[in-house]
Design brief:
Oligomer: homodimer
Largest sheet of chain A: 8 strands, mixed
Shape of chain A: elongated
Number of strands of chain A: 11
CATH topology of the largest domain in chain A: Nucleoside Triphosphate Pyrophosphohydrolase
Number of helices of chain A: 2
Structural class of chain A: alpha+beta
Number of domains of chain A: 2
CATH superfamily of the largest domain in chain A: Nucleoside Triphosphate Pyrophosphohydrolase
Radius of gyration of chain A: 19 Å
Low-confidence stretches of chain A: none
């Protein structure tokens, strides 16, 4: 079957009150929703597991295991799944740590405290290397994202949920 | 231009690791994301503003003003927008109240405390009527959703963020 070029225009669907992406070929409306990023701060005996990114954006920088929440899972399940995918680590998810909002890219980042039962981890497909860092050796100048630095500080300060409200 | 019927199949896109909805006609991949519902508990002099739903699901039942977060806004901005759309009410959004997860429908509900500066409100397009209820008169048997009842109780108990973690 020959494929059509993917093409969209913007218009207000019937019964709606704002412009959406509508397919040029059929009646599909692409309701673009904000996306939820779920992650955790995995601890093992006081050290924190960070991953060096193998992909853009911020390739080569250090991050916490985190990624887009998938349908059908809870935020905690998503955070555990991301730790397994990115750091090959089985974590036990603890309490909510931060809610960090990034409205200009339509993202809400949710981070949990987490523990590694054993110091077993590795580099998933999106990771160059994974490593346990003592607090004093965290490479602050090479942290990939502001929400990651924010989660690390919230972990350190330990005052329950911290909401970064823009 | 003649329109094609909207049609999707499920397959794993290149570089991905799970099945997605892919268009039968072009290369569009519909990455279905969990959706964030944002709402608030609007208070005026100890009473709470509820809306009777004009739309399905749960038409005729009472709810708090809430709806899907839109791109480009924060959860608090979305909660204020929904109060204006559904209850024609200008609210001042306060602290986070609840995070209620409903993974089987891929939703995360975020509710805030909020205050009405003046007792001005009305019925938006999705609302049959809006009314201020003293706590003792809240129609518990006619509350539309579990997350709404949960937010009302969290408002009453006043213990900071309550996370409903399935």
């Amino acid at each position: 079957m020959s494929r059509l070029p993917m093409a969209f225009h913007r218009s207000v669907p019937e019964g709606d009150n704002r412009e959406r992406r509508v397919c040029d070929h059929c009646d599909f409306v692409d309701y673009e929703n904000p996306r939820v990023v779920v992650g955790c701060v995995p601890e093992f005996e006081g050290r924190i597991l960070l991953c060096r990114r193998a992909i853009e954006p911020r390739r080569g920088y250090w991050t916490l295991p985190a990624g887009f929440m998938e349908t059908g899972e809870s935020t905690a399940q998503g955070a555990a799944r991301e730790a397994e995918e990115e750091a090959l680590a089985k974590v036990e998810i603890g309490p909510l740590l931060t809610l960090f909002e990034v409205p200009h890219v339509s993202q809400v980042h949710v981070f949990y405290r987490a523990t590694l039962r054993e110091p077993l981890f590795g580099a998933g497909h999106e990771t160059l290397e994974a490593r346990l860092f003592p607090w004093d050796e965290i490479p602050w100048d090479e942290i990939a994202f502001e929400s990651v630095a924010h989660a690390l500080w919230a972990w350190r300060e330990g005052e329950g949920l911290v909401h970064h409200r823009p």
